[in-house]
């Protein structure tokens, strides 16, 4: 049995933007779309002060937290040095223009 959940068409997520998905088990999950139409998903809380990453600025494969400018790698959820910490990444895929999330 597959644990992939259909989320939305890719076009519902703005380039360099995000969409938040609610999960009973994991809380809010932010799904990001890069300028190259790659998609990534992480827990929507910065490891520093739990800022909403979904409201941050996407650049390359990173997002900058809107509260204190920590940079988070979208592929791994790890903070970029010199900051230390991580937020949980989730598996996400794009098939035929539709975004799927595995939780």
UniProtKB/TrEMBL annotation:
Residues in Rieske domain copies:
5-101
Keywords from UniProt, A to Z, are: 2Fe-2S, Iron, Iron-sulfur, Metal-binding, Nitrate assimilation, Oxidoreductase
**Which PROSITE patterns does the entry link to?**
RIESKE
According to the UniProt entry, the coiled-coil residues are none
* A Pfam family the protein falls into: Rieske
Query: Which InterPro entries does the record cross-reference, listed alphabetically?
Result: Rieske-like_NirD, Rieske_2Fe-2S, Rieske_2Fe-2S_sf
Instruction: Give the highest taxon in the source lineage.
Output: Bacteria
Q: Does the keyword Cytoplasm apply?
A: no
Q: What PANTHER family does the record tag this protein with?
A: 3-PHENYLPROPIONATE_CINNAMIC ACID DIOXYGENASE FERREDOXIN SUBUNIT (PTHR21496:SF23), FERREDOXIN-RELATED (PTHR21496)
**Protein name stated in the entry:** Nitrite reductase small subunit NirD
Taxonomy of the source species: Bacteria, Pseudomonadati, Pseudomonadota, Betaproteobacteria, Rhodocyclales
Gene name of this polypeptide: nirD
């Amino acid at each position: 049995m597959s644990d992939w959940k259909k989320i939305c068409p890719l076009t519902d997520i703005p380039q360099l933007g995000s969409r938040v998905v609610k999960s009973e088990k994991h809380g809010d999950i932010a799904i990001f779309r890069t300028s190259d139409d790659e998609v990534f998903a992480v827990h929507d809380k910065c490891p520093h002060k739990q800022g909403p990453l979904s409201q941050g600025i996407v650049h390359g494969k990173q997002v900058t937290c809107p509260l204190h400018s920590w940079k988070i790698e979208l592929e791994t959820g790890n903070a970029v040095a010199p900051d230390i910490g991580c937020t949980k990444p989730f598996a996400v895929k794009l098939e035929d223009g539709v975004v799927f999330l595995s939780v």
